[in-house]
From TrEMBL, chain A:
The chain crosses the membrane at residues 12-31, 80-102, 114-134, 146-166, 187-210, 245-266. This is Sugar ABC transporter permease. The keyword Cell membrane applies. It is found in: Cell membrane. InterPro entries: MetI-like (IPR000515), MetI-like_sf (IPR035906). Keywords: Cell membrane, Membrane, Transmembrane, Transmembrane helix, Transport. PANTHER family: ABC TRANSPORTER PERMEASE PROTEIN MG189-RELATED (PTHR43744:SF12), ABC TRANSPORTER PERMEASE PROTEIN MG189-RELATED-RELATED (PTHR43744). It comes from the Bacteria. One of its GO terms (biological process) is transmembrane transport. It is a multi-pass membrane protein. Residues 77-266 form the ABC transmembrane type-1 domain. GO terms for cellular component: plasma membrane. The lineage of its organism: Bacteria, Bacillati, Actinomycetota, Actinomycetes, Streptosporangiales. Belongs to the binding-protein-dependent transport system permease family. It comes from Acrocarpospora macrocephala.
TrEMBL record, chain B:
Pfam families: BPD_transp_1. The chain crosses the membrane at residues 30-59, 97-118, 130-150, 178-200, 236-258, 290-311. One of its GO terms (biological process) is transmembrane transport. InterPro entries: ABC_transporter_permease, MetI-like, MetI-like_sf. This is Sugar ABC transporter permease.
Length: 281, 321
């Protein structure tokens, strides 16, 4: 037993080193974000917020105070929450209903339509970007909150994943419910949704992470700084305050921490989800 | 939504003495279309129309100020052959291919190494997996901001760490030759998804094969090359294809890394060494208002991605037969 543990020691050492490479950037981000501006520029970088002269603990919240207020990240944080709070549930509902129809309700042309949907999945976002912005303008949603939401209100990939899962459910339960006189929607809400909680959770979590982190769409569809989402505000902070790492790292921490909390809570679900789907990229 | 009305119908429909056949009936047709309608509207307005429109615009000189004029293949030929009009087109192609050729293998090697190590232990494997996964869920904007600071030539952690082993300070993001390796390293730092997928692949290798190899006297190195690598071939192929498609479209990261001068200004980095193809498209579309050229570039990318995808399907078919 002990010999076995000793034999595994090099593996643990290697994993600890790799994990450090993975995690140290975050620790440094946090340390920088809590440092006084005068303590940032030291010859030997410090992974703790220490006073440059005395080497004593000297953490401060003033960087957060600055970026949340003057830096505009407070407003951006609320905007991001607002967008995700509407977009994620609405998208889940639309995708799940469509996926259920594609999986279970036969109607003429259904499978051909599904193939067309799948073909649409191959088109890279950048190809669609220019006309998407244009049509958002035509619809009067450019530079509005709805322009951030409605053009992302469904996802072909999510419909595909949900359809696959719904099709794998045993049909007997639904059949029995139908014979008992249940309608399609009753079956959906009372049987399909409860059985599909794991996959619905995976889709919800990945969708939240994706939209919380998304930079490109807010970048091209808004202009008004009042509408900045968090990634956009962070990018602008990094651009305008490029010499002030303490502000930028405070902003980065605000963007990263909520997602890390979600990851910690739902880690098992997320890992399982990725193992068979791959995360949205 | 429509459920209260529609839910009542099956109660009326079944006729006595005749079992309902599943999945047939007018109400199904109606419900089916109703459920798909929101997704269909999205699909037509924000996917199908934009795809068709982008193709059309790529054959026009649309610049937002005047109505689009049909110019045939002019955008495509100008992009490919006119280096006065489009001085950086080929540079952006070169940057993107170089980045892809370095980032994809680097990501896969580090993902496989991590997966093998995690697969070899029991205790703490979930913790290591979680720590190695953290960079994946981090927003591009934050990744860019953090790494700009890590690569800082004077006060950055990277130079300090390399200084410990005697490597002199480098100005990573301002030296044209170092920009692509520096970006590829960030991509490898974010290899967590590939790691998870490799881990699933490793779990799928039957224990019996491993044992048979041990009985036949194969050492760990031989087992790795003769058993693990061949068994992971489909996984590796999938990851190469999806990784290549993603790397060809790298944008957000370079946008943040090379934004400067305030607000939404962005550059292609020192001597355009970080001018990713999609960044080049973005600049033409949203800075220079050259929508026609931007759409032509994005269609060339689409064709390339379709070729890569087609190769994937061809390979998968071969594997299956």
């Amino acid at each position: 037993m002990i010999a076995r543990q000793v034999r595994k020691a090099p593996i643990y050492v290697a994993l600890v080193l790799l994990s450090l490479v993975s995690v140290v950037p975050f620790i440094w981000m946090l340390a920088t974000s809590f440092k006084h501006s005068s303590d940032i520029y030291t010859k030997v970088p410090s992974l703790l917020p220490l006073d440059k002269q005395t080497g004593e603990w000297a953490a401060t919240l003033e960087n957060y105070d600055h970026v949340l207020g003057i830096g505009g990240l407070g407003q951006a944080f609320l905007n991001s929450i607002w967008v995700c709070a509407i977009l994620v549930p609405a998208k889940l509902l639309i995708d799940a209903l469509a996926a259920y129809a594609f999986a279970r309700i036969p109607f003429p042309g259904r499978d051909k339509l599904f193939v067309v949907f799948l073909a649409g999945m191959m088109v890279p976002t950048i190809t669609l970007l220019v006309p998407r912005v244009h049509i958002t303008q035509v619809l009067g949603m450019y530079d509005t909150r709805w322009g951030l939401i409605l053009p992302n209100i469904a996802s072909v990939l999510d419909i595909f994943l949900l359809r696959q899962f719904f099709m794998s459910l045993p049909g007997e339960l639904e059949e029995a419910a139908r014979i008992d006189g249940a309608g399609r929607m009753q079956i959906f809400w009372r049987i399909v949704v409860p059985l599909s909680k794991p996959v619905l959770a995976v889709v919800t979590i990945t969708s939240f992470i994706f939209h919380w982190n998304d930079l490109v769409w807010p970048l091209v569809v808004t202009n008004d700084p009042e509408l900045n989402t968090l990634p956009l505000a962070l990018q602008q902070l990094a651009s305008t305050e490029s010499g002030r790492a303490y502000y930028i790292m405070a902003g980065a921490a605000l963007s990263v921490i909520p997602v890390i909390i979600v990851l910690l809570i739902f880690q098992r679900r997320i890992m399982q989800g990725i193992a068979f789907t791959g995360l949205k990229t | 939504m429509a459920s209260p009305v529609l839910a009542e119908r099956p109660a009326v429909e079944p006729r006595p003495g005749r079992r309902r056949r599943p999945g047939i009936g007018r109400s199904d047709q109606l419900i089916g279309w109703l459920l798909i309608t929101p997704a269909l509207v999205y699909f037509v307005v924000f996917l199908l129309y934009p795809a068709v429109a982008a193709l059309y615009y790529s054959f026009t000189d649309w610049n937002l100020r005047t109505a689009p004029n049909w110019v045939g293949f002019a955008n495509y030929t100008e992009l490919l052959f006119n280096d006065v009009e489009f001085p950086h087109f080929w540079k952006s192609v070169q940057v993107t291919l170089q980045y892809t050729l370095i980032a994809v293998p680097l990501t896969l090697v580090s993902a496989l190494a991590q997966a093998l190590l995690i697969n070899a232990i029991r205790r703490g494997s979930n913790t290591f997996r979680l720590l190695l996964f953290l960079p994946v869920v981090t927003a591009e904007a934050a990744v860019g901001a953090i790494w700009r600071w890590l690569y800082d030539p004077q006060y950055g952690l990277i130079n300090a760490a390399l200084g410990l082993v005697g490597i002199p300070k480098q100005n990573w993001l301002n030296t044209p030759e170092l920009v692509i390796p520096a970006l590829a390293f960030i991509a490898a730092w974010q290899c967590g998804i590939s790691m998870i997928i490799y881990l699933a692949g490793l779990k799928g290798i039957p224990e019996s094969i491993r044992e048979a190899a041990i009985i036949d006297g194969a050492g760990p190195v031989q087992r790795f090359w003769k058993v693990v690598v061949p068994m992971l071939r489909p996984t590796t192929f999938y990851l190469v294809v999806t990784g290549t498609i993603a790397a060809l479209q790298v944008f957000g990261l370079v946008y943040v890394i090379f934004s400067g001068g305030g607000g939404r200004s962005v550059t292609g980095g020192p001597e355009q060494s970080g001018l990713a193809y999609v960044l080049h498209i973005y600049l033409y579309a949203f800075r220079y208002d050259a929508m026609g050229a931007a759409c032509a570039m994005s269609f060339m990318l689409l064709v390339l991605i379709m070729i890569v995808t087609a190769l994937q399907f061809k390979f998968l078919k071969q594997e299956a037969s």
